[in-house]
Design brief:
Elements lengths: L18 E5 L5 E12 L2 E8 L4 H6 L5 E8 L2 E6 L3 H19 L4
Antiparallel strand pairs: 1-2, 2-3, 3-4, 4-5
Length: 107
Amino acid sequence: MAEEKTPLPGQQEEYEPDLITLEDEEGKEHVFEVIDSADHKGSRYMALVPYVEDEEEMLEADLELVLMKVGEDQDGEFLDIVEDDEELYEVSNMFEKRLREFFDIEQ
């Protein structure tokens, strides 16, 4: 039986981003990092930002938050844009609050 290694105090596990590749209308692929997901009124939503591999470049980048709705069909789960303005408003407010608390962002 293999022994599990426990990190020593002060050591952090290496961060592995949760990446997802989406294809746009022209067939071009874009890589996003999933920064949060949550349920709202019976549906699942994901908050994504364009993935930037270089940490310094990421800090300087003006990343735009992308909100997607998780749907399901006979082939499995898929992501879709949130088309309804009221739904988008509610979901964006929910993620704004969640991310502000998680990242300790002040207004």
